[in-house]
Amino acid sequence: MLLDVNANRDALYKPVTPDAFAKATAPLWAALDQMHPHLWRGGKQFPNNAEAIRQMLADGEVALALTFNPNDAANEIAAKRLPASVTSYQFSSGTIGNTHFVAIPVNATAKEGAQVFANFLLSAEAQARKADIAVWGDPTVLALDKLSATERAAFAAKPLPGQVEKPAPAIPEPHGSWVDALEKEWTKRYAG
Q1: What's the burial of 34, exposed, middle or buried (CB within 10 Å: 0-12/13-18/19+)?
Q2: Tens of pLDDT along 82-119?
Q3: pLDDT averaged over every residue in the chain
Q4: Which of 124, 126, 149, 155 has the lowest CB atom count within 10 Å?
Q5: CB of 104 within 8 A of CB of 118?
Q6: Sign of the CA dihedral 164, 168, 170, 171?
Q7: Per-residue confidence band for 192, with pLDDT thresholds at 50, 70 and 90
Q8: For the purposes of burial, counting CB atoms within 10 Å of the CB of 49, is it exposed (0-12), middle (13-18) or buried (19 or more)?
Q9: Is 139 in contact with 163 (CB distance < 8 Å)?
Q10: How far apart are alpha carbons 163 and 132 in whole angstroms?
């Protein structure tokens, strides 16, 4: 939401400063102030974690749940923990996108083998298997338009119930220093 209410996002990709924070978050707090009275329990209490809100969605206690995995609903439908009527969407303006990281420690004894394995994890074959709802259901990190037609075909299956049909553009995450400042201010305003 912080990214969505800021047309000029330059400051968000630099270390946070008090002035930048005040300017960038003013429209965020205004939007959240308007939204909170319409949230579950009037925006005065919040579920503890993703599993709790997912269960609340399954129970019909809330109509909307957030997730970091765009295929989370499809995974939960496949596991029969959510009804097939649940749909997923992403904002057409984009969504924060990040990936899983594989690191090779500086003191690794088999760096070459680790590099071969890391390269395999980035192969179309491994990424297609990871994206399969029956296996993991986590979207690929690959740019499909850069793959061969044969490689792209592995990702061409019709979306399953709950799966995002057209992914939104990925927006880079703000500089990490914004997280703590946002959490502290949000807690002070809404959870205190």
Answers
A1: exposed
A2: 999 999 888 888 888 777 788 999 999 999 999 999 99
A3: 92
A4: 149
A5: yes
A6: negative
A7: low
A8: exposed
A9: no
A10: 11
Q: Where are the alpha helices (DSSP H) in the chain?
A: 18-35, 50-58, 72-78, 111-121, 124-131, 149-153, 177-186
Contacts of 74-82 spanning 24+ positions with Cβ under 8 A: 74/133, 74/137, 74/159, 74/160, 74/161, 74/162, 74/163, 75/133, 75/137, 75/162, 76/162, 77/160, 77/161, 77/162, 78/133, 78/134, 78/137, 78/160, 81/54, 82/54, 82/57, 82/58, 82/162
Q: With contact defined as beta carbons under 8 Å apart, do 101 and 87 qualify?
A: no
pLDDT of 11-37, one tens digit each? 999 999 999 999 999 999 999 999 999
CB atoms within 10 A of CB 28: 18
Question: Are residues 124 and 154 in contact, defined by beta-carbon separation less than 8 angstroms?
Answer: yes
Q: What is the largest CA-CA distance in the chain?
A: 56
Tokens of 114: 């680790």
Contacting residues for 92 by C-beta, under 8 A, at least 6 apart: 168
pTM: 0.78
